[in-house]
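Lecture 7 notes. Example A: sequence first, then its C-alpha cells.
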Amino acid sequence: MKILLADDEKLIAITLGDALLEAGHAVTVVHDGKEALQAIHDNNFDVIITDIRMPHADGYSVLETVKKIHPQTHVILITTFATVEDAVNSVKNGA
C-alpha cells in the first residue's frame, strides 16, 4: 500500500513510518500540513495517516482536501488531544 504519514512529532512519525515500512508498505513521511497538502496534490495514496494538530494546516484541512481530490483514499486522523467532538467531526467528514 502507498501511505502518506503526516505528523509534526518526529519521533512518532519515524516510529510509525518504520513499522509501516517493515510491514511492506511504501511510506512518505512529512512533518507539517503544508507538506502533506503538497504530497496529496503530487501523488495518489491508498491511505493517509495524519495528525490533527500540525503547523501550517491541520488534519481536518488534509482530510477535506483528500476527499475532494482523491475521494477513494482512506484517511486516519491521529492526535494526543482527542475529544468526542473531534471524533464525531472526523467521521462526519469522511475519516
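Example B, a different protein, same format:
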Amino acid sequence: MEAIDAKSGESILDTGCGTGYFSRRLATSLNRSVTGIDICSARIGFASRQSSNSNDFLIGDALALPFSEASFDLVVSMAAVCFMDDEAVALREMVRVARRRIAVGLFNRHSLLFFARGRSGGRGGYRGAHWHTAREVKELFYELPVKNLRLLSAIQLPGGGWIARQVEKIWPAPLLTGGILLAVADVDRDSTGQ
C-alpha cells in the first residue's frame, strides 16, 4: 500500500479486480472508494455483493478500458495482467486512463510461490498465469510513457501468514524473490501529449 502512495481525495481504478478482494482491501486501508473492473460478470456480481462501502464494480475489458484518458489518479492491478492475452495492451490501457501512477502486481518466476504453484502450467488458481522475471517486467514497461519505474517484491505463500510477513520485513528488497513483483511507475504526461 505504501508503494502506491495514494494522496487524499485521489481516485483509484483496480483493473482485473476479479471478486474485488484487493479493491476492498485498498478501500479499507486508504479509507476511500475504489472502482473495480473485470471482464467476468460473475466475479463482478460477487464483488458487488461483498462490498459494504461505496466501491463501484463494473464489467469491462482491461484491453479496452471504457474510460477516457487520465480518468483516475491511480490505476492498479494485482495478479490479473499475468492472466491476460495481451499484457502489453493491458498496461498501455492502464497508463492511458491513469493521471499520476500505475501499480501492477505480477507473479514472480524466481520465487518459492512459482515452485509451489506455478510450474508445469500452474496449479489451481495459478493455472495459465504467465510468471515473470524482473527483466521481463522492465521490458513490458520499456516503451510505455512512464518514469520512475520501481520494482518491489512481496512474499505470497499460500498459508504463509504471520511468518511470511515477518520474513518479508527483513528480507533484502533488492533480491526480488517474493511471489509477487510489484511494478510501480509514474505516468509521464509530457510524453503522452497531454
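Note on Example B: The chain has one domain: 12-185. The longest helix spans residues 87-97.
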